[in-house]
Amino acid sequence: xxxxxxxxxxxxxxxxxxxxxxxxRKQFVITISVVLxxxxxxxxxxxxxxxxxxxxxxxxxxxxxxxxxxxNAEMVLSSQFNGNKGGGAAAxxxxxxxxxxxxxxxxxxITNEQGEVVFCKEMAYEYMMGDDGRxxxxxxxxxxxxxxxxxxxxxxxxxxxxxxxxxxxxxxxIGCPLTIKGEFKGTVFGTMPVANGLLxxxxxxxxxxxxxxxxxxxxxxxxxxxxTYRMVRPLRQMSEAAKQYAVGDFSNRVTVTHSRLxxxxxxxxDELAExxxxxxTDLSAxxxxxxxxxxxxxxxLKTPMTxxxxxxxxxxxxxxxxxxxxxxxxxxxxxxxRLSRLVTGMLNMTKLEAGKMxxxxxxxxxxxxxxxTLLSFEQIIEKRNIDVQGLEEVTENKVIxxxxxxxxxxxxxxxxxxxFTPDGGCITVASKSDAxxxxxxxxxxxxxxxxxxxxxxxxxxxxxxxxxxxDAKGAGMGLYIxxxxxxxxxxxIEAHSEVGEYTEFIFNLPK
Length: 511
Fold this sequence. Notes:
The protein is α+β, with helices and mostly antiparallel strands and 511 residues long. It contains 12 helices and 12 strands.
């Protein structure tokens, strides 16, 4: 009992491992990797875009406040506070710079025409000033001459960087000209370290995006899993069915997921599943034909060989007297010819399928061939009282083709007509032509062929229901070989039948 339970558990584990392996695993990993990379790319692009928008907004805000400081400084320096009351003017400028700096968490300062800092918020405090009267923070700064010159011409300076080493870290920099009564007197700069506000802002955006992405990724994971499993299920069924087909079991079929949809609406997987099922049906029919062929060939070989062996042994051991030896030798000869025809048919079928059948075209009269073939069956026709009609209307009908091959076609069709025509029945032949082809018709009365079999009689190894046959001999190769020979000559052959009435074969050959 424990062993059976253990085997059952191992089987379930094996099926589970199989479920998560192979194509399903590869497809799932690839799809979910694409989704993950898409999130990473989207997040990276979002961070870059957000950073760019934030930087532009900060630069715009810094520019606006720098211009405001510049206007205030121009107004103060141009008013009554300039001159004897310069200390008051400086206090107002310090106050304006300090307020703007605190509001934006930025740094504003004013330089003279040479680029030296003359006003900054630190100058309002004595402890921030050195003995030379310079600010400890801005005293060492000296704006590059090319930048000052550019600003002096009325151009605004807007950049992100270190201004040739004036700042340690990446900094937003805005520079505006300071003019008094239309005369350039210096520059007003507004600066703000990039990292001061960008990193917290980006971090907040990143946290929100990560949370939203995590939720979306979980949903995508579930959907991709379900979709992938559903998509590869027919392929998994095909794999299992193919293994059964390999051992000769063609009963398994693949489920077509969207079988109710139109052909244009179906997916490639659905079409593949349908084609796979169709292939399985054909393989099943072919396997049945093959088994029938093997059975028929075995019977066809065994019967004449038994007959040949029995009669020859009877002649050799004296069981058959000398007066009857010729009779039985004649039977042996017929059986040998029968074996020869069977082997020749098998060889011809092999050559046809391998594409090694060589055509040797010559010009000949196919009407004459039809007439001579019927003459070879004269004894059987007379014995069974079969009426042959249409010969009086047959005229010369020449074609260029392989004479031996076409003779095999005519012989097989006439042979079938004689076999399946009942005693006292009728065979009708016709040989006509038009501008492009020769047309041969051979019709015989009899049981006929059922509609569901008429389209199968040209398949290899296929034999019509023996219960309706007057002669059950044959391996099901004759009509297949006939059709193949006609087709390699560029012609066509078709069969018509009415159950209980007649069977008719019509073939044509290009002239």
